[in-house]
Amino acid sequence: MHLQPGESDQPSWTGGKPMIDNKRHSARIHFSDRESTIFEFPCLSTAIILSFRDDDPAEDEKLVGTVTKSKLDEMGLWPTYRDCFKTATGVEWGLLVHGEFENLFEGDPIMEIDRSVLTDTPTLCDAYDDFFSSNTEKEGIRD
Question: The domain containing residue 44 runs over which residues?
């Protein structure tokens, strides 16, 4: 998957410019029903955690950082933002280098999203910790 600049100055959900190079952690999310997508690491956690929910949050509840449910609704992203991550099956961590996603770890492992085990924030955080501690970062990847 090679990223290219978008053809629009609109926000990303309407065809804006994707991340081309990112020295910070990025994540490639794999799905059961469509192609994978790339997110910045902090956004990944929020998206996956939100997908564990089936309730109807209060309008003023902050769901994505400081963004409330009502703001997501105004942008036309509620409940789509929550629901579109329910089919996530795995996550890779890495960096974007010249538009190409590069897995951060030796062997290019993918952390499985097993919804029978990962059900909330604490279980996802534990899975992240286990994954990061059991894999070795590729030498020189951050150079």
Answer: 27-53+87-133
